[in-house]
Amino acid sequence: ENPLSEREIEILNLTALGLSYRAIADDLNISPNTVRVHITRIYEKLNTCNKVEALNRARQLKILE
């Protein structure tokens, strides 16, 4: 089951591509702080502590390809 919102998945996908918070913010027309808030919620929802863990967990759950 996917616990993430569409926006969180979008941000996680951009993170997987190696984009910085600033680049993600610019791409989505939101502030870098909003990106940070989304990332924090993604970590909480996936029960992870960092980007690598979150991306691996998302792939396990078939949220990301």
Low-pLDDT stretches: none
Share in β-strands: under 5%
Largest sheet: none
User: What distance separates the N and C termini?
Assistant: 15 Å
> What is the CA-atom radius of gyration, in angstroms?
11 Å
Strand segment tally: 0
Strand-pairing-aware structural class: mainly alpha
Average pLDDT over all residues = 96
Shape: globular
Order of helices and strands: HHHH
Count the helices. How many?
4
Helix fraction, binned, reads 55-70%
List keywords for this structure.
4 helices; globular; 65 residues; mainly alpha
Care to describe what's here?
The longest helix is centred in the middle third of the chain and has 15 residues, at 32-46. The mean pLDDT is 96. The two termini are 15 Å apart. The chain is mainly α and 65 residues long. Helix 1 packs across helix 3 (32-46). The chain is globular, with a radius of gyration of 11 Å. The protein contains 4 helices and no strands.
What would a concise description of this structure say?
The protein has about 60 residues and is mainly α.
Topology:
Elements: H1 6-16, H2 21-28, H3 32-46, H4 51-60
Helix pairs in contact: 1-3, 2-3
